[in-house]
Amino acid sequence: MRKIKLYEADDKMIDLITDNYSMLQGLNAFGIRLGFGDKTVDEVCSEQNVDCYTFLAVVNYIINGYAPKETDQRISARTILDYLRASHRYFLDFQLPSIREKLNSSLPHDDGRSSLILHLYDEYAHDIRKHMRYEEKTFFPYVEALLRGEHITKYNVAIFSRHHSDTTGKFQELKSIIIKYLPHDSLANNRLTATLYDIYNNEEWLSNHANVEDHIFVPVIRLLEKSVKEEGISTKLSDMIKSVDAGETISDREKEIIVCLVQGMSNKEIAAQLFISVNTVTTHRRNIARKLQIHSVAGLTIYAIANNLIDKRWLTGQ
Q1: Where are the alpha helices (DSSP H) in the chain?
Q2: Residue 11: exposed, middle, or buried by beta-carbon count in 10 A (0-12, 13-18, 19+)?
Q3: Please, which residues bridge with residue 40 across strands?
Q4: Which of 227, 235, 277, 301 has the most CB atoms within 10 Å of its CB?
Q5: pTM surpassing 0.90?
Q6: Helices assigned H by DSSP within 148-185
C-alpha cells in the first residue's frame, strides 16, 4: 500500500522504495543502482550523478500527482530526457516482449481464439512502438539541439504536444477479451490471470510515463525554448553592436569605396577608379552595409566625416 507523502532529499531511499515498490523501475530509468544501504535520497543521487531535485519532482508526481509549477526552472531537462529514453528502452526491449511471452505461454494453443488475442496484442504493441519511436526520432533530437543552444524554427514543443496522445487505451479491448475468455484449466487460468495483472500494471506504467511527459517534460522544454530564443536574440544584438564599431572592422579598401560613394560615383565608376571589378564593388558595398548598418549615402557621408575619411568642408565646397 502506498504511503501518501511528499518525499524530500533527506528521506531514506529505502523508505521511498518500501512505501512505493512500483518506483523500482523508475530508479533504473534514472540510472540509480541498488545497494545504496540506508543513505538518503540526496546522498544516493549525489553519488550516482542524478539531479536530486528532478528525481524527486518525478517521484512525487507519479506517487501523489504533485506536479511542479510550469515556471519551475530548477528541473533538469537533460535528466528528464535521459530518464524518458531509458524508460523507452525498458518498455520496448523488455516489458512488451516479456508480456507477450507470458501471454503466449498461458493461452491454449489448440484454440483459434488464442492466435487472435496474440494478434491483437501485437497490433497494440506496434502502435506503442510507433508512438515512442516518433518521440525518439523527432522530439528527443529537437531537445538535444536546444540543450546545445540551437534555435530551430521548423519544430517546437507546441507541435509535439498537439500530436502527443495517451496510449493507455490501446490495451482496453485486449483486457476485456481476456477477462471474458478465461480457460477452464486451473493452471492455465492462473497463468492467464497473472498475465492480465501484468497488463494492468503495464497500462498504469504507460499512463505515468505519458503524464510525466505532458506535465513535467513539456513545461521544462517550453522554458528551454524561451531561454535559447532569448539568448539567440541577445547574441544577434551583440554581434550587431560589434559590427557598428567600424574602427576595427572596416578595411582600407572599404574606406576608399565609402569615399567614392559619398562623392556620388556609381559602381562602374568606382570599379574603374580602383581598378577592380563591378562585382567586387558590389560585394564591398554589401559588407559595408552589414558592418555599419548604414544603407544610405547620407548616412555614409556622416560616417565618413566622423571618421575623418573626408573633410567636412567638402560639404560646402570650400
Answers
A1: 13-19, 24-30, 41-47, 52-64, 77-90, 96-106, 112-134, 140-147, 157-163, 172-180, 186-212, 218-244, 246-249, 252-262, 267-274, 278-292, 297-306
A2: middle
A3: 12
A4: 301
A5: no
A6: 157-163, 172-180
Torsion on CA atoms 222, 137, 127, 83, rounded to nearest 10: -60
**Cα three-residue angle 106-121-109, rounded to 5 degrees:** 35
Q: How far, in Å, CA of 196 to CA of 259, rounded?
A: 85
Q: How far apart are CA 142 and CA 73, in angstroms?
A: 19
Asked whether the beta carbons of 75 and 83 are under 8 A apart, the reply is no
Comparing CA positions, the residue from 211, 238, 169 lying closest to residue 62 is 211
Tell me the mean pLDDT in the region 220-234: 82
Q: Which three cell numbers stand for residue 147?
A: 540543450
254-283 per-position pLDDT tens digit = 999 999 998 899 999 999 999 899 999 999
